[in-house]
Design a protein that fits this description.
The complex is a heterodimer of chains A (110) and B (178). With 110 residues, chain A is an all-beta fold. Chain A has a single domain (6-33, 45-105), classed as Immunoglobulins (Immunoglobulin-like, Sandwich), CATH 2.60.40.10. Chain A contains no helices and 7 strands. Chain A has strands spanning 6-9, 18-26, 48-55, 58-65, 74-81, 85-93, 98-105. In chain A, a hairpin with a 4-residue loop joins strand 6 (85-93) and strand 7. Chain B has 178 residues and is of the alpha+beta class. Chain B has a domain at 52-174: Immunoglobulin-like (Sandwich). Helix content of chain B is 28%, strand content 34%. Chain B is built from 4 helices and 10 strands, in the order H-H-H-E-H-E-E-E-E-E-E-E-E-E. Chain B has helices spanning 2-10, 14-32, 36-46, 61-71, and strands spanning 51-52, 77-78, 82-84, 88-91, 95-101, 111-118, 125-131, 138-144, 150-158, 163-174. In chain B, the strands form 2 sheets. In chain B, strands 1, 2, 4, 6, 7, 9 and 10 form a 7-stranded mixed β-sheet that branches. Chain B has a 3-stranded antiparallel β-sheet with strand order 3-5-8, with no helix packed on it. The relative contact order of chain B is 0.19. Classes of the chains: A mainly beta (110), B alpha+beta (178). The A-B interface holds A 19, 21, 30, 32-35, 55, 58-71, 73-80, 82 and B 93-95, 105, 118, 121-123, 125-137, 139-145, 176-178.
């Protein structure tokens, strides 16, 4: 994966009103700024600092991160699936990089 | 505090580090007139998991300021939140965290924020999770870095202003922060 590649996983079959678990990962080095390369060069801080979760038109969550989050950050959380709509996430790093991914929440036909 | 940290890092071999750490903990507990560290160790020995009840001492000005800025003078009480972490983290670069709460997520009352604070990390206020009722429940999983053995605090704030906390003591073998 290259920096910013992101995946969001939700259950295959969802019924209206169900509480689903959302798993997300983004490829990112999450450098703290405290490490050096093998030849002694400092590695500058480079990390995701902000994550916005949107469901349809609504911002449902926002996360503020530091370089204390592990490399290739994962996060999982729940969502009340009460409408058929896109679930979108946007990760922003401290150098202005914005990485986006979305999945569509749709209900299994009965 | 910084002097003792250097000593710790310079003391080399793990077993001597460990015994030094222990003597330092004893000294610290004696000086502060508190048995928090020792109590934590005993509970760790008794239970495999690291989640314990009770409030660990605020270790330094940095953490004290974070708590003050976030919660002011409101009481931070244990309860309504769980923090599940390993008692022993071999690799401080990847330490799993699970935070859950039994509080409701309705439009009238919900958990609006969860803060994760790692006492002895370079940047202790590691993450903040701002939530809305649409999230449905508090069940957050992540992976974090830890510099060394310390307490971790998960503290939530409700939409009505209540503050609830859970604590975990994690032993870290390999520094994950550089």
């Amino acid at each position: 994966m290259t920096i910013g590649d992101a995946r969001i996983r939700i259950p295959d079959r969802i019924t209206r009103g169900e509480l689903i678990t959302v798993n997300a990962i983004v490829a990112h080095p999450m450098d703290t700024g405290f490490f050096r390369t093998a030849d002694g060069q400092p590695i500058p801080a480079f990390f995701i600092k902000d994550v916005v979760v949107t469901y349809g038109d609504e911002q449902v969550a926002r996360f503020e991160w530091t370089s204390g989050i592990s490399k290739d950050p994962i996060v999982s959380f729940t969502l009340k699936a009460d409408k058929e709509a896109p679930l979108a996430m946007a990760w922003t790093d401290n150098k202005g990089g914005i990485y986006k991914q979305s999945v569509h929440v749709a209900f299994a036909s009965a | 505090m910084d002097e003792s940290k250097e000593l710790l890092e310079a003391s080399g071999e793990w077993s001597s580090r460990r015994s030094f750490l222990r003597s330092f903990a004893l000294l610290g507990a004696g000086l502060l007139g508190s048995s928090g560290v020792l109590r934590g160790e005993r509970l760790l020995a008794a239970a495999g998991r690291s989640t314990v009840a009770g409030d660990p001492e605020v270790p330094n000005e940095q953490v004290a300021k974070i708590l003050k800025d976030l919660f002011g003078d409101r009481p931070i009480r244990p309860g309504h939140i769980s923090l599940d972490m390993p008692a022993l983290a071999e690799d401080g670069r990847i330490v799993p965290v699970i935070i859950e709460s039994d509080l409701p997520m309705t439009s009238e009352r919900y958990v609006k924020a969860v803060h994760l604070i790692v006492d002895h990390n370079p940047d202790p206020h590691l993450a903040a999770y701002y939530l809305t009722p649409a999230i449905g429940s508090v069940a957050i999983q992540s992976r974090i870095k830890m510099k060394r053995t310390t307490w971790v605090r998960a503290i939530l704030e409700t939409s009505t202003g209540d503050v609830w906390a859970a604590y975990a003591h994690v032993n870290v073998s390999i520094n994950g922060c550089g």
